[in-house]
Hints:
Order of helices and strands: HHHHEEEE
Number of strands: 4
Largest sheet: 4 strands, antiparallel
Strand order of the largest sheet: 1-2-3-4
Amino acid sequence: MAAMTTRSCPCGLSEPYDECCGRHHTGTAAPTAEALMRSRYCAFVKGDAAYLLRTWHPRTRPTRLDLDPGMRWTGLEILDTTDGSAFHTTGTVTFRASYRGGSLHERSRFERVDGAWVYVDGEFLS
């Protein structure tokens, strides 16, 4: 894990993982819907199901999440954001997440619960 801390964050931003998404994984709330989206992508990269469940809206959260250990995520591209700032209670993030062999294109919805951004659900786009 030490090697991960000095390289650019898997979310695509240039900051080291610890200063970017890693701080959200260890307890600092994401300040925007986009920051939460990026940190959730990194959680998929790292296989951190606990973080994904913690940041999922209680209304739509599954009881468990089984991640495929063979999945290799290779990049994240944020295509659009709507609202989702410190001044909003809802927001959307449209993104393309690439993995070995393909990509996932989704528009995700986020809401604030007790002041913290959480993932609600997503719509797959073609």
